[in-house]
Automatic annotation (TrEMBL):
InterPro entries with a match to the protein in the record: BUG, Bug_dom1
Keyword hit for Signal: yes
Similarity comment text for this entry: Belongs to the UPF0065 (bug) family.
Pfam family, one: TctC
Protein name as catalogued: Tripartite tricarboxylate transporter substrate binding protein
Record-linked SUPFAM superfamilies: Periplasmic binding protein-like II
Signal peptide from the UniProt entry: 1-21
Keyword line: Signal
């Protein structure tokens, strides 16, 4: 990751929005709003909240703060949101893995993601990319070279993930099954740690979201061998899909993000949050930044998010069952 460049970009975007946004009556009576993510600083939800933090504060008429509440594959952030006062002062950008996969992987979830949280909106969909180190694994020039190496030495290659049952884990498990290869899973405590392992040569490959690795791809530090979306991304036309690069027709594995609050939050607050977040996100500057990171914008309302989650839960339960992923 190239954090200084990212911070400079976000600062410019936020300054432009702050100059345009006009303060509105406070949604929370002036109390601060916590914009929370479940994974470390520099990961996607954290980047997103910092991009829109200032214009969102103006739109909601309340100060905002961004916090990465990490741990337990996002469950700590989920539980903190579910237990928060239902007044819109704690707002979580959650991944579909947190909302749908965790419940299939973990025998005892601290909350029920369908009944203890209220959906506000879908944000965007993010495919994973198959990442290898250009320096540590120069022989992996393309996906077929990687598969051939794995087949030649069953069990010798390993793949990193951001945690057991995370989308980064399940994308790799799906890939291994489709490629008919035996590779070893090594979970880490979040994507940045897994990327460090890749850079150091401790991990052979990693399925990760594109945003944090684009700078290192452009400067040649890593190779992106394929993307897990159904079609090539308009913002990354050079990167083939896994389906085409690896000869795996129909291979798709993406993550989507959505905003949730405590379940008892009144509908007027949910509607105002949805309207405000959609307004500040659906601008040319923010759209360009997010699409440049490989995201596909969604911005659907509470009902759309509820229906998508209801469909995803049984889908990922079956993927988890086939993968054998399980946390204690």
């Amino acid at each position: 990751m190239r954090i200084p460049l990212l911070v400079a970009t976000m600062a410019g975007l936020m300054a432009g929005h702050a100059a345009l946004a006009q303060p509105q009556p406070s949604m929370t009576g002036g109390r601060p709003i916590l914009l929370m993510g479940g994974f470390p600083a520099g990961t996607q939800a954290d980047i997103y909240w910092r991009l829109i933090q200032q214009p969102l504060a103006a739109e909601l008429g309340s100060p905002t703060a961004v916090e990465a509440r990490t741990g337990a594959s996002g469950n700590i952030a989920l539980e903190a949101t579910a237990r928060a006062a239902p007044d819109g002062t704690v707002v979580l950008a959650a991944t579909s893995a947190m909302l749908a996969i965790n419940r299939a992987v973990m025998p005892s979830m601290p909350i029920d993601t369908q009944t203890d949280l209220a959906p506000v909106m879908t944000l965007f969909e993010a495919p994973n990319v198959l990442v290898v180190s250009a320096e540590k694994r120069p022989q992996f020039t393309n996906c077929q070279a990687l598969i051939s190496a794995a087949r030649a030495a069953p069990g010798r290659l390993n793949y990193a993930s951001s945690g057991i049952g995370a989308s980064t884990h399940l994308a790799a498990a799906q890939f291994a099954t489709a490629a008919n290869i035996d590779v070893t899973h090594v979970p880490y405590r979040g994507g940045p740690f897994a990327m460090t392992a890749l850079y150091q040569g401790d991990a052979d490959l990693f399925f990760y979201q594109s945003g944090p690795v684009l700078d290192d791809w452009r400067n040649g530090r890593v190779r992106l061998l394929g993307i897990t979306s159904a079609q090539r991304m308009p913002s990354l036309p050079e990167i083939p899909t896994i389906a085409e690069a690896c000869d795996m027709p129909g291979f798709v594995s993406t993550t989507w993000y959505g905003v949730v609050v405590a379940a008892a939050t009144p509908r007027p607050i949910i509607d105002r949050l949805h309207a405000a977040i959609r307004k500040v996100t659906d601008t040319p500057e923010i759209r360009a930044r997010l699409e440049g990171m490989g995201f596909t914008m969604m911005l659907g309302g509470p009902e759309e998010m509820r229906a998508r989650l209801a469909a995803d839960i049984p889908h990922w339960a079956e993927v988890v069952r086939r993968s054998g992923a399980r946390q204690q």
